[in-house]
Write a structure and sequence with these properties.
Structural class: alpha+beta
Oligomer: single chain
Shape: globular
Order of helices and strands: EEHEEHEEHHEEEHEE
CATH class of the largest domain: Alpha Beta
Strand content: 25-35%
Distance between the termini: 62 Å
Amino acid sequence: MKIIKIEGIFVGEHVVADLCNLAKKLYDKGRFGEIKKDKIKYSLLEALFLLDTGKLNIVSSTNKEFNFDSFLKKIKKSELNFWSKYCVYKDLRIRGYIVKTALKFGADFRVYDRGVKPGQGHATWIVYPVYESDVMTWYDFAAKNRVAHSTKKKLLLGIVDNEEDVTYYEVGWIKP
């Protein structure tokens, strides 16, 4: 039995594929990608996750096929702290959450509660992935919390440890 996969082409900061049945199904179920006419555009995180889970093949513009390690190596050259972002992204996706970019909010991700889809409801959290060995000043911490508060979202810190396990801390304002 042949396993059907989405065929994608790595184009700079995205992976683009034809809008096949599997791509449409993944979009409808988990909002993977962004539909543009008869194509679907995946972020690098989405593409790596779909490659990792066996749903996507990725080739370069010169038709060279990427495996997980070669695609990760290519991405890490251009994106700072990509691995911590991927660990958090993957963990949240496996837990059943829809994860989208939150650059316009000044965060890495916005995360929708289970059963809520972008366009049908609002994200519950904004998420900042960090390594457990990273240092964060009180100023940085307060700034992250302020961004979450001003966007009416909860702040979630995804702490990635040396074993690549993720622990989450939800942070909020209280008035004593």
